[in-house]
C-alpha cells in the first residue's frame, strides 16, 4: 500500500493511495541481475497479454525517463482507446548503486566482501485502469474471462412462482453441467426477484461479465438457453446437451477476441514519421504511437516533449534497429524510438 501527495489525480491511473506489487532481488553478478530484470519484464508482458488481453510493447527507457539511480529501466507500454500510451509496468536493473549507498554486501566464494547487484520491479492498480480503458465501452466494463470474478452469469426469467421454480432448477442444471466441464469456473445465478429481466441484463453488462445465459419458461420447455457474449453482444440459442462445450469454447474465443481487437486498434493507430514536421502533424491530427529516429540527446528529447507533449515511451526490444537519421537534427540514429502522448 503506497501513499503519494498527488496534486492532479486520475481514477486508477494516478491516485494518492494505491496498491503496488513490488519486488527486489540481489545477485552475485551483473549478468544475473540483468537476466532477472528481463525475466520479470517478460512475466509482466505475459500477464498483460495472456490474462488481461492487453497487447504491450516492451522496451528500454531513455536516460531521461529511467528510474533515478538505475543502470537501466525497462517498461511495458500499452495503447488505450484514445490513442494515449499507458506505462503498465517497469523492471529496473539497479546495478550496484543502491548496494553501495545502503552497504548491501555479501561474502563471495573466496570469503571476500563484495557489493551485490540488485533489481527492482513492480506493477500497481494502474493495471486496472489500463484494463478498463483498453476493453470497456459506453455501457460499462468488459472483463477478459481469465481474470473475470464472474465468468458466467445465469439469469432466470419468470412471471410467477411456478416459473420461478422451473427456471431456477434449470439454471442450477446448467451451472452443474458447466462445473463438471471446467473445475473452478466462476458462475453466478441471479436469484433477485425485485428487478425486471432487462434491468438484470444491463446490470451484468455494466459489470462486464463475459457470458450471460438467459433462461425463461420457453427455454425450459425446449431444454435450451440463450447465450450472450459481452464483447460483441452476439446471442445464440444453445441446447442444454451442448451448452457446456459451447460456453467453454466461447470463453476462449472472447479472451482471444479482446486481445486481437486491442492489437488491431494499436496497429491501426501506429505510424512512422520520417521528419519532425510529419511527426508533429501525426501527433496533432491522429495521435497514437509513432516510431521515429532520434539522435539520443536529452536536449532533443526535451524539445520534442515541450513542443508536442509526446514523450519517448521506450526503445523497443523488438527489432527496429535499422539505422537512420534523427527526425529533428538529421544526425545518425541506430534505432527508432516509440513516441506517444501518455497518461
Q: What is the compact description of this entry?
A:
The chain is an alpha+beta fold. Helices cover 36% and strands 28% of the residues. The protein has nine helices and 20 strands.
Note down, in words, how this protein is organized.
The protein is an alpha+beta fold. It has three domains: 2-135, BirA Bifunctional Protein, domain 2 (2-Layer Sandwich); 145-257, Rossmann fold (3-Layer(aba) Sandwich); 270-340, Translation Initiation Factor IF3. Helices cover 36% and strands 28% of the residues. The chain contains nine helices and 20 strands. Strands 3-9-6-5-4-17-20-16-15 form a nine-stranded mixed β-sheet. A five-stranded mixed β-sheet has the order 11-10-12-13-14, with helices on both faces. β5 (72-79) and β6 form a beta hairpin. The two termini are 21 Å apart. The model has no long low-confidence stretch (mean pLDDT 96).
Distance N to C terminus: 21 Å
Count of separate structural domains: 3
The CATH topology of the largest domain is given as BirA Bifunctional Protein, domain 2
Principal-axis shape:
elongated
Rg over alpha carbons: 25 Å
Number of strands: 20
Count of alpha and pi helical runs: 9
Strand content: 25-35%
Helix content estimate: 25-40%
> What is the level-2 CATH architecture name of the largest domain?
2-Layer Sandwich
Low-confidence stretches: none
The CATH homology group name of the largest domain: Bira Bifunctional Protein, Domain 2
On the 0 to 100 scale, the average pLDDT is: 96
Q: Please summarize the sheet with the most strands.
A: 9 strands, mixed
State the CATH class of the largest domain.
Alpha Beta
Structural class: alpha+beta
